[in-house]
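Try this one yourself first.
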């Protein structure tokens, strides 16, 4: 049984290396090992808590490689730490941190999920900090700290732009992993950007290798000061968006 498990782990690590290379990310063995171990921890914990609905055999593609597809946009940010909003199981934050070597803060307000992330950070000895709070709290405590903010399957673009603005340093980037945002969502995101000192840079349409799934990477930049006071009270970005 142990031999079979080791063979599966080696096979999965190789899949991660090869698929990452297909999206332009070259992973050293040590990085691929850490990313594969994180994936294994996610599915072990998923037996007792709701971390993901993605089947185990699709985890490499729809968690790991999906996360790494935004690495180029994250790497284009200025020097400094990164932050991942609503980390959940640790995607995209943990693969991004491992692949880039950047320090990353993982914001997760659900206690059990934050505790899981703490266990991953400790076991893999990652240069990461788990912040068991809401993004608005982080914005109050660490204004202008981050070179880039990532967000995957968390909220709509208007809310994400608002939440990221106070966290970002000038020139910092918000990188959003979206499925297929509607024209209305994109327009509203740009309207909120204009109010919050952000500007829309580009949308990158991609297909995840080994899957039929499509992804839109939507990128914004912190370009100036907001014309509204941020962060607003917890939950308002979602319940009463600025646009």
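Now uncover the answer:
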């Amino acid at each position: 049984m142990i031999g079979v498990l080791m063979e599966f782990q080696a096979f999965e690590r190789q899949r991660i290396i090869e698929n990452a290379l297909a999206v332009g990310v070259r992973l050293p063995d040590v990085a691929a090992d850490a990313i594969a171990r994180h994936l294994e921890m996610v599915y072990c914990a998923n037996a007792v808590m709701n971390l993901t609905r993605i089947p185990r055999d699709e985890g490499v593609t729809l968690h790991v490689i999906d996360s790494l597809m935004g690495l180029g946009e994250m790497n284009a940010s200025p020097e400094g730490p990164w932050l991942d909003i609503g980390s959940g199981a640790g995607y995209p934050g943990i693969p991004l941190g491992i692949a880039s070597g950047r320090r990353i803060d993982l914001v997760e307000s659900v206690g059990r999920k934050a505790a899981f992330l703490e266990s991953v950070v400790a076991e893999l000895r990652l240069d990461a900090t788990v912040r068991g709070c809401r993004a608005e709290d982080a914005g109050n405590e660490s204004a202008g700290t981050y070179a880039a903010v990532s967000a995957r399957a968390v909220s709509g673009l208007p809310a994400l732009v608002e939440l990221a603005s106070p966290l970002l340093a000038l020139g910092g980037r918000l990188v959003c992993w979206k499925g297929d945002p509607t024209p209305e969502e994109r327009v509203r995101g740009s309207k909120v950007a204009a109010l919050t000192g952000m500007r829309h840079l580009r949308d990158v349409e991609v297909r995840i290798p080994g899957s039929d799934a499509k992804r839109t990477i939507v990128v914004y930049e912190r370009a100036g000061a907001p014309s509204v006071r941020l962060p607003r009270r917890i939950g308002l970005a979602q319940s009463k968006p600025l646009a």
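Discussion: The domain at 2-239 is CATH 3.40.50.150 (Rossmann fold). The mean pLDDT is 94.
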